[in-house]
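re: ur question from yesterday

yeah so i grabbed the chain u mentioned. its 221 aa long if i counted rite. heres the sequnce exactly as i have it in my notes:
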Amino acid sequence: MISEMVSVPADRVTLGGDLVVPARARAIVLIAHGIDSPRHSPGSRTVTAALHRAGFGTLSLDLLSEAEDRGVTPEGDRRFDVRLLGRRAAAGTDWLKAQPETRTLPIALFGSGVESAAVLEAAAELPDRALTAVVWGARPDLAGDALGRIRVPVLFVEGDRDPGLLRLDQQAADRIPAANAVRVVRDAGPLFQEPGALDEVVALATAWCDEQLRGGTDTGR
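ran it thru and got these structure tokens back, copy pasting raw so excuse formatting
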């Protein structure tokens, strides 16, 4: 197993990340962090640990530099610049394709909250480099026109306790021309803090990724 802290150049800044590649990993997941989901939070660790057990490598990548995260850059607050964050998620994908340990592995893009919009923006720019995108507790409305340019399969996962976010997912799914699906975790809120809720998110996500690795898409729609 490879496990190391990494630095990823993107957009004239350096982004921090944690790279873990289990032996015989069948794919690697880039998980976008930095706004709604700090990469060292308990929830983030739950997701990455479950992915590793399922045989997936992970790159947990902060989309903001340390200075940007503190809001002390000349450009001001960049935390909600979805196009910028999407370019950085795409840069993380390019970085993975350049590393000897990961360059042959298919790449899935994961994100929640505001980061989900950056993941969808990146997916629109990476039709031939990303296997799929998976978002949960999502804000796909922030991705705007990028939704109509996505050509990779997309999975939305939402808790049934937030019908507003579920409605946003369904509206976004209708705008995406690629194969997509919306899955619902029962008795879960938007942060999936209920016991077992994040485990169910990962189970749905890994099943979806496995389907893409087999070359098919069961949308269930």
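noticed a couple things. The mean pLDDT is 92. also The chain is about 35% helix and 25% strand.
anyway ttyl
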